[in-house]
Structure formats: structure tokens, C-alpha cells
Short-chain dehydrogenase/reductase SDR (Sulfurospirillum deleyianum), 250 residues
Amino acid sequence: MSKIVFITGATSGFGEATAIKFAMVGYKVIITGRRRERLDALKAKLPHADILPLCFDVQNKEEVFQAIASLPQAYKNIDILVNNAGLALGLERANDAHLEDWEQMIDTNIKGLLYVTKAVLPTMVKRKTGYIFNLSSTAASWPYEGGNVYGATKAFVKQFSLNLRTDLKGTHVRVTNIEPGFSQTEFSDVRFKGDTQKAHQLYENTIPLLAEDIAQTIFTLAELPAHVNVNRIEIMPTCQSYAGLVVEKK
Ligand code: NDP
Ligand code: 8X3
């Protein structure tokens, strides 16, 4: 029987590439996001694959639980959850950043991820099988100017993944925290609020990670034997490395 994968934020970037990767090899894939037309277009692009679009906003607790409860019987026993939906908004220093942006990042990256996890987890625990991938970031561990709340939400995801792993001892449910670095998706278009030129400039003369690289990583981990759990994985493009600490001079 085909395994079932549930992916949040499958309308773009990592989520879309991951959906395509699993669907192409015969997994049943539930694709989710707020943009219904994107979900329908992805399904239409892969006519021979088993894809179920499910449109909801992860920030809306009722919508999340309702959508997951409404899954047809044939899609209820989710084997793999990819908690990917998320965003950064703005790159201003804390004093100039917008409180509404902070709230949206918290509501999406933290609370949305928790709602989906809470809705999917009971069936995994009951069935004593499952795999949860949480999309964190290098920003969880490596601070940078303007990363303030975005990085903090991803640090939450990292620690939640580790704590979840601890709670799930004995259930056979696996958890991996995925921590990508510099990657080219629609992420920067969203962060810079539609200033595509600014987003584009960021990637000029670089070879960033692509969505397919993260999809391949998730797929490879998912195919490991059930007794193997990779707890965290930090992935950067070769062109990216570490910066030093900074000192303010008089
Ligand atoms: P994209 O902007 O390309 O994709 C983000 C996805 O999240 C979209 O499908 C979007 O769908 C979905 N999403 C955002 N808000 C909501 C919401 N409220 N409800 C439901 N879905 C939502 O970015 P990436 O693919 O790059 O990002 C995916 C994840 O990876 C994010 O969590 C991001 O923080 C993380 N990440 C990204 C990195 C990068 O450099 N690109 C590096 C490290 C981590 P829709 O708008 O249709 O709702
Ligand atoms: C996205 C990577 O460095 O822009 O999580 O925060 S970064």
C-alpha cells in the first residue's frame, strides 16, 4: 500500500518540490497551502500521481483541525508529515521592525506548526508509526542582523523538534529538524514584500540551495530504515559559510 505524505506550504519552494519528489515515486501526497489555484495547478501538472489538495491557513486553528478531520478515509493514516509552511517578513533591526510582521511569523512558523502537529500526531502514535519533518533554518542557530523574530521562531522549531523526539520515545514515530541555509525559493520575495528586484539581487553571482536539494534530503531521510532517526540536519550551499562575531569600534 502506498504511504501517505502530508505537506504544508506545498504551493511553492521546498514544499512544492517535496510534493513532486514523493508523488513521482508513487506516494499519496496531500498538498496544502492558502493559494487554492496553486494547489490545483500542481495537481494538474502531475495527472498520473495520487495528489489530494487541501486548502487552509495554518494560522487558523479551527481551519487546521477541520481540514485534517475532513480527510477522506483513504488519506487519514498519514505516514509522513512535512511541517514546512513558514515565512520571514522584513529584515529591519528590532527597533524598526513591524510588530504585525512579528505576530504573523509567530502565528505561522510557531503556532501553525503546532496546530498541524497536534492534529496529525494522535493517529501516528496510535498506529505506532510515522515521521515528522520540521522546517527550521540555519537562522535557528546563527544570528544575523534583522533576523530577530524570524530566527527566534526557527529556534523554537528546532527545540520543539528535539523535545518532541524525546516525548515520542517508544512510539516508533521519528522526528527530524531540517535546517537549511541560503536557498532560492519565493522566500525572499515574501520577506521583501514583493520587491522582486531586491530578492533577485540577493542570489546574484551565487549558487544557492534549490528547493529540489531540500526535497531530495527529506526524501532520502524518509527512505532510511525505520530504526534510524536523524535528529537534526544543517544544510548550506557550498558558497555559504560562517561569519565572525562583530565588535563595535568607538
Ligand atoms: P516559499 O515562500 O517558496 O514557500 C512558503 C510556503 O509556505 C508556501 O507554500 C506558502 O503557501 C506557505 N505558507 C506561508 N504562510 C502560510 C499560512 N499562513 N498557511 C499555510 N501555508 C502558508 O518559501 P520556502 O519554500 O523557502 O520556505 C519553506 C520553509 O522553509 C519555511 O518554513 C521557511 O522558513 C523555511 N526555510 C527557508 C529557507 C530559504 O532560504 N528559502 C532556508 C531555511 C528555511 P501559501 O502562500 O499558498 O499559503
Ligand atoms: C532562511 C535562511 O539565512 O535567510 O531561513 O534566515 S536565512
Summary: Residues 99-127 form the longest helix (29 residues). The longest strand covers residues 173-180.
